[in-house]
Amino acid sequence: MPESKSIKYNLLALVFLTLCFLFFYWKIITHQGFFWFDYLLGEYPRRAYLAQYLRKFTIPLWNPYSLGGHPWAAFFFASGSYFHPFTAILSLFVKGGHLSSYTLEILLIIQIWISAVATYFLLREFKLTRLSSIFGAILFSFSYPIITRIQHTGHLCGIIWIPLIFYLLMLTLRKRSLFLASLCGLSIGISIMGAHPQSYLFLILVTGAFLLYSFVVKKDLRKEIFIFSIVIGICAFLISAHRLLPEIEYSLLSRRLSQTASGYVPIKFISNLFVPWLFGKGMAAYDYWGGYQGFWMFVEYGAYIGIIPLVFIAFSRGLLKEQKVRFFWYLLFFSILFVYGKNNILHKPINVFLPGLRFYSRFLPYFSLSSAILASFSLDKFATLTIGKRSRLEKTIIGLLIAVIIGFVIFGIWKSTLNFADGRLAYKYSIISKGWLLFLSFLFISAILLLARTKGWLNGLQFQLAVIGILVIDLFSLGMYFNVGRTDPDRYYQPNSLTIFLKDEGKNELFRVASGRFGYLYANSRCLMYKIQSTEGKLENSLGRFNLLKKGLRKVNKERYFDLYNVKYEIRDTVISKMRTLYPKERNTYLPRAYIVHKAKKLPEANIISYMASVDFDPQKKVVFEKSEKIRLLKGNTSEEDRVVITKYNAESIELSVRTGDDGYLILSEHYYPGWKAYVDGERVPIFRANYLFRAICIPSGEHEVKFKFSPKTFRLGVILSVLGLLSIIVAGIVSRLSTHSRVKKIKKHIEL
Q1: Which CATH class, in words, describes the domain spanning 594-711?
Q2: pLDDT single digits (tens) 98-145
Q3: Ranges of each domain in the chain
Q4: For the whole model, what pTM was predicted?
């Protein structure tokens, strides 16, 4: 086919995919609905916070607003990397210091559309027809493991790059190009930059497995594959180094690695492959009866890819003989075996290499990808099927039809026994019956289409068009509802009397607020949106010492805990006229953000928290250090001359004017963390870990200017490596282009001679 025609048909395919996305996300695009739940309560605030800073050409390395402060440079599980291309795009749409949620919603839809386009070209690289490739692209991008992940953009930003990475891997092996290998590494690096760690760890695992498989089966390419693997790995690491290095440092100080692996999918949920609504539609607590934690597990357990793809996969055993798709058969079976079941034998060895995993269900996107590839191949085989005498295949399809008809009869008998007038039980069984009816209906239609094709009643083109139509109806009818919430995030985060009061109070002095775990500032991440410093926040992997201090001190002596954290207001709730009302309760014993003490004590780390909770510890007069700290212990008394004024406070730097009548310790109720540096009158001084988790420096008598600055080595080194990686890929592209141009010139010259 001429190249111009090929481009034209590819464009038509992309137009069709675009129309599918417009239809599926129409309510979001027209602002009639909104992404909801975790997107509303966590993902949007964090993305908005990052975009707002980048708009000012500022990199927020430290976040002082959540959980008493933590390193944003090392912890952006669901907020994206500073240099991720889509994060940069987001910053362009910040107006008046505000990023509209609509902008983020549209950008997320565009990213999923890109994954659909990449899936289409991946399948075309396998030499499948355009209609079969469209079928696979729709299957992948509208399957439950993809659409439900909009709730967690950190996972989504890893998932969307999977098809493109495999497409580049296939091109690299076919063209034997180092430049394409470097582009593949770039794609993996970008995925790592924006993805949740679990998503990119799974990506690395699967990519490595594919390269190993190719190394084993392609004996004539082993040398090249080995070199390509090294190039891909180096490029991916360099591009993402500015995220990986700080994150590795953070992980060593956090709690996640100490947790045991959990989050397997109970085996009963394998039924979601056939009837996704068997345990509810997952939109609220009343709409989910699957047990285990709550309705949000619908997101984790969603595995539905449509009925007709499952039928095609069932009829694709012959594909095992084809070397180019055998890997995806292995991936399909591994996905199912890995995800489902308690005490799964695959979990332990995987957790040795990828410690701290929580939800194995997050491997389901690879089930979607392998299903899309295998089902598309099977569709292509049926489309080019030679029509002959009644075959074994035809008998199998007729047997399937008979089984479905029997299923309809059993379903009718079961439904006739139900007699619930109304209430939750009636709703539950109505949803279950609808789910089973849809399953049987789509299975019946699938069998009819297959029979029509084997009988020759439909030609290949008609068959493919009909299959695509059924898949669209199936996935759209069962998936369009899920991501459409009623709460507009932009309205949800509008200032109210409480936040206005706290912001106004914050103009006069630095302080923190505290609320319950599911309190006002926690669940809604308002601390980020309103720039209110809080002891609460939403992070899956907070500092290990923070958690130990919270559990050990807050439970025993809550007031002492709040005092140390400079908590001036505790957000409480009450019920007035049957309405939940939140109000700030002022506290009078809180310590200032920075203060001076003249006495110190050393204790083993294990004894510090219990000592801090006791009556023997007065934080206004004494500080406690770990025994390992090499610091001189003072035994002075508080002086009336002691004065500390914070003259400038930014996320990454704090400047103070200090006066003291005697040598002492300057204590900050700010978390101790590697990368913070302290200067007294311009000279660098060591920072000590005080009161288990806070910062302290020795301060001599007299008047001094003190500055704290956050400049982590891991981030600086990571940025340098990322720049070097990008420059290397650009140079590789230029060299590849020049060498191609040189080869073309030589060929032309040879032809002329």
Answers
A1: mainly beta
A2: 999 999 999 999 999 999 999 999 999 999 999 999 999 999 999 999
A3: 489-586, 594-711
A4: 0.90
